[in-house]
Write a structure and sequence with these properties.
By secondary structure, the chain is an all-alpha fold. The protein has one domain. Helix content is 76%, strand content 0%. Helix 1 crosses helix 3.
């Protein structure tokens, strides 16, 4: 791996983690194009970069949530905390059970192309749902569980974690901004758990060999992810999801035609 490879992969992670176009699909495709082997050290750094970005962007919501828990002296009296905790359980549980199956059989171009197209159509249908919830405080525990179950589908490469959770939110009556905001907040426990799992899977004796790539990847993915979140929230309020749906359809068809 070269510094240029690390920068390109960090740019891709930062751009696609929070857009409804699937970061895993793009990372797999570009890793094959660049001819770079999977590097768990860099994967951890890229996830940490995007995690820091979402935490800083939504720091007011997170600080308010933790202040509420400190004041009540209970984790269980804060609805947002409970919703976020419940929403990440299905993905973490199913990911733990099926990680080897997914890595062995689903990380290929055919699966990515089909899921890219299929879940573009799901998002398209979801955009026609009527909205009656305009705040994350209106999200019920049932809503959070359903969105969490939808998020577990993102274990399949090409699905898009943000894409499927936003789709589920829209179908449950959330407006564009609220569905996107809750999806991004869900990334905090989910990405934290993924990064922790990857970290404990590493051979730390070789960490120093990849330190420069790690720091570079973390910094680039953080900067790009932060501005991508800001852009996306402003963009969907004015234009909506159609450009992302069209992009997914074009990408999926191109993968089917040229890479399968």
């Amino acid at each position: 791996m070269t510094y240029l490879d690390a920068i390109i992969l960090a740019l891709i992670q930062g751009l696609t983690e929070f857009l409804p176009i699937s970061s895993s699909a793009h990372l797999i495709i570009f890793s094959e194009i660049l001819g770079t082997a999977q590097n768990l050290f860099l994967d951890v750094s890229l996830h940490l970069g995007t995690l820091i970005a979402v935490c800083i962007y939504f720091k007011r919501d997170l600080i308010e949530m933790f202040n509420g828990m400190l004041q009540s002296k209970s984790f269980f009296k804060n609805q947002l905390f409970i919703n976020l905790a419940v929403s990440c359980i299905p993905t973490l549980f199913l990911g733990f059970l099926f990680v080897n199956l997914i890595d062995s059989h689903l990380r290929n171009t055919l699966v990515i192309s089909l899921t890219t197209i299929g879940f573009a159509l799901v998002l398209f249908v979801a955009t026609f749902s009527s909205s009656n919830k305009t705040s994350v405080n209106q999200i019920s525990l049932k809503d959070a569980l359903i969105i969490g179950l939808a998020q577990s589908l993102s274990l399949i490469p090409g699905t898009s974690r943000s894409g499927i959770t936003i789709s589920a939110g829209l179908l449950l009556g959330l407006d564009n901004k609220t569905a996107s905001k809750f999806s991004f907040l869900m990334a905090v426990p989910t990405i934290s758990a993924i990064a922790a799992y990857q970290f404990f899977s590493l051979d730390l004796e070789n960490l120093n060999d990849y330190l420069q790539f790690n720091l570079l990847g973390l910094f680039v993915s953080f900067i790009v992810a932060y501005f991508t979140i800001d852009f996306f929230i402003k963009f969907i309020n004015r234009i909506g999801f159609i450009p992302f749906i069209l992009y997914r359809l074009v990408l999926g068809l191109a993968l089917l035609l040229f890479f399968t």
